[in-house]
Specification:
The chain is mostly beta strands. The protein has a domain of 370 residues: Porin (Beta Barrel), CATH 2.40.160. 6% of the residues lie in helices and 40% in strands. The chain contains 1 helix and 21 strands. It has an 18-stranded antiparallel barrel. The chain has a two-stranded antiparallel ribbon with strand order 9-10. The N and C termini lie far apart (149 Å).
Length: 634
């Protein structure tokens, strides 16, 4: 049974395989016939079910030996002939490949890093570039040549100086001219024109640095308006001391001074030392009333002077120290007029910020009373010495255009005892006092060259307890700080002063005052200066509470030559001894010449005429002074 079933199953499988083979053969023949009807095949007898790689299986292709040529079937088609590849037997590809249709610019859909190609630099040439083929008439193109470089300016040759040994002297040759600013960096133009001069409209020009020899002293200017130095309360009125005791300082000339001192560089400081020595003659040195009884005398005067300026980008420290000693030839003058003089002032500025500064000042003054003054005792052997030591501490701040300054001052005035002809001493301690003061100054900048201000000062003078001469004073000023037309600079103010004494028997001192200094550069060679001062001094005149002094001076300097400068001065002053009938009116007129032999040596000559008219006899006099001296500076 099982054997017959197995035989039937095998016969059945043979019949199915035969049917299947017949169907496959028929389908293959039909497909071959259809493809041959559509397009001719390259090899009609190839078996599509067994594709081969360029040849039969009996003779497969091998690698070519070096130098062996390709067969005709492997040769590339000739140029200019397009042969489409056959799609028979190729695996179909559906869809679009990655980055299909992407261009050279724009979004890159492949998300692959692209290497940037360096742009070729076109060669600079003046030849014609090759023209592309076009149906239009070619237009010639010409690459312009590079612009020519500007010519480099040549410096003028240095001056020849004869003799040769004079070429090494300082000041023998002028410094080379500065380089011109580049054309590519012109200064900015500001509109409207009224805004061009406002603070902050343009960057400040950096100051010129000193050369290797340190010849250029830096200016100690500050962006914040600082009040002028406080004068000592015992400073004598101008032009009341003997001629030559105070240093003679010419006014600045707009055209410049080729003989100005070069100074000495000491670290971050510039030192300007000098020394004056002179011989003088006075027709009435004792200020004796009446020309007939006046005794003339000759004297010598001389002393050093030092000016110091710091060279810092921030902060500032300056010093001005001068001293002289006057020695008369005639030793029989009574009282002896030989006298010292020393005036020292050191100013400091600490720049806390751009708009805030701390002001520091130290001052010292040593002088004597003016000969013929009513404050001197009779039968004096020599003039007594007065000293004043003081200082100032303050704060200055700017609120945009509004500036506020608050200052505090302290001064200690000491009057030495007077030496009498009988060998005794007369005390002047009743004149000693301590003065403390507070100053408030408020200014507003209407224009960069005009800044009005008001200033109020309250002070107190305290004498020794046994002398009832204590007093309080109030000073109010209104003026302006000016810098107009490029030629008028300085400040001038007017106001009122009032001093009240605790002693009811002493009258109060009050009156109009003026204070300040203005410099006007009229021409490039002419400069004028107006100075006004007012002060209330202590006095020993019977019944007088104080000496109210007011002075007004005018000075004009003119440069006739680079080495020759002339100066003319005139002044008017009054001394009012409040509480007494004594009034003094003072006048003076002076003229002088300054001849500059070199930067280091100057010859100075000066003549001054003094007049004093008093309401009481014994205090009016007239005197003429002559001076010829030598000024040495470095």
């Amino acid at each position: 049974m099982r054997a017959s079933a197995a035989r039937r199953s095998a016969a059945t499988r043979r019949r199915l395989s035969g049917v299947t083979g017949f169907a496959v053969a028929a389908g293959t023949a039909f497909a071959s016939t259809a493809s041959m009807a559509q397009m001719p095949a390259a090899n009609p007898g190839a078996d599509l079910l067994q594709p081969s790689l360029q040849g039969s299986a009996n003779n497969p292709p091998r690698f070519r030996r070096p130098g062996e040529t390709r067969s005709a079937e492997e040769q590339a088609p000739p140029p200019g002939r397009f042969v489409a590849p056959s799609r028979v037997g190729a695996t179909p590809t559906y869809g679009s490949p990655t980055a299909f249709g992407a261009g050279d610019t724009g979004f890159d859909s492949s998300n692959a890093r692209r290497r940037k190609r360096p742009s070729p630099t076109p060669a600079v040439t003046s030849e014609l570039a090759p023209q592309p083929e076009t149906t239009f008439a070619p237009v010639p193109t010409l690459t312009p040549p590079p612009p020519p470089k500007p010519p480099v300016p040549t410096r003028p040759p240095p001056a020849e100086i004869h003799p040769v040994k004079a070429a090494a002297r300082p000041g023998a040759a002028l410094p080379p001219p500065p380089d011109e600013p580049p054309v590519s960096n012109p200064p900015p133009e500001l509109h409207p024109a009224s805004a061009a001069t406002r603070r902050g409209s343009a960057l400040p020009v950096p100051p010129a640095e000193a050369d290797i020899s340190g010849n250029t002293p830096p200016p100690a200017s500050a962006p914040v308006a600082v009040p002028p130095p406080t004068p000592p309360p015992t400073a004598p009125p101008p032009n009341t001391l003997p001629l030559g005791m105070q240093p003679l300082r010419p006014l600045p000339i707009a055209a410049g001074d080729p003989y100005a001192a070069l100074g000495i560089r000491a670290g971050s400081f510039v030192l300007l030392p000098s020394f004056d020595t002179a011989a003088a003659y006075n027709t009435n040195p004792e200020h004796t009333p009446g020309a007939a009884s006046a005794a003339s005398a000759a004297y010598f005067v001389g002393g050093p002077e030092l000016q110091v300026a710091s060279d810092w980008q921030r902060h500032s420290l300056t010093a001005d120290i001068s001293g002289t000693y006057t020695q008369y030839v005639d030793g029989n003058l009574i009282p002896s007029l030989n006298a010292p003089y020393l005036n020292s002032r050191i100013d400091g500025r600490v720049d806390v910020s751009r708009d805030t500064q701390v002001i520091l000042e130290n001052r010292f003054l040593l002088t004597t009373e003016n000969p013929g003054s009513p404050n001197l005792q009779t039968e004096l052997a020599k003039l007594p010495i007065d000293t004043d030591l003081g200082g100032t501490l303050g704060l200055v701040h700017e609120f945009n255009r509004l500036s506020v300054a608050v200052l505090g001052t302290f001064d200690r005035a000491v009057y030495d005892p007077s030496q009498l002809t009988n060998g005794q001493q007369a005390s002047n301690s009743d004149l000693n006092f301590d003065q403390t003061a507070g100053i408030v100054r408020i200014g507003y900048e209407l224009d960069p060259g005009l800044k009005p201000f008001v200033q109020v000062q309250e002070d107190e003078r305290v004498h020794e307890p046994q002398f009832n001469r204590n007093s309080t004073g109030t000073t109010a000023l209104a003026g302006a700080d000016v810098d107009l037309f490029g030629s008028l600079t300085g400040e001038m103010a007017g106001g009122w002063v009032e001093r009240s004494y605790k002693d009811p028997t002493l009258p109060d001192v009050s009156g109009a005052i003026a204070a300040g200094a203005l410099i006007w550069q009229a021409t490039a060679l002419t400069t004028a200066k107006l100075t006004a001062t007012s002060q209330v001094y202590e006095t020993t005149v019977d019944g007088a509470s104080g000496q109210f002094t007011r002075d007004l001076n005018v000075e004009v300097d003119h440069a006739f030559l680079r080495a020759l400068t002339g100066t003319v001065s005139a002044g008017y002053g009054t001394d009012n001894y409040v509480g007494s009938a004594l009034r003094d009116t003072r006048y003076f007129l002076s003229a002088g010449l300054i001849y500059k032999l070199s930067r280091e040596v100057q010859i100075r000559g000066l003549v001054r005429q003094d007049w004093q008219l008093a309401t009481q006899p014994g205090f009016s006099f007239m005197a003429t002074s002559f001076l010829l001296g030598l000024h040495l500076q470095r």
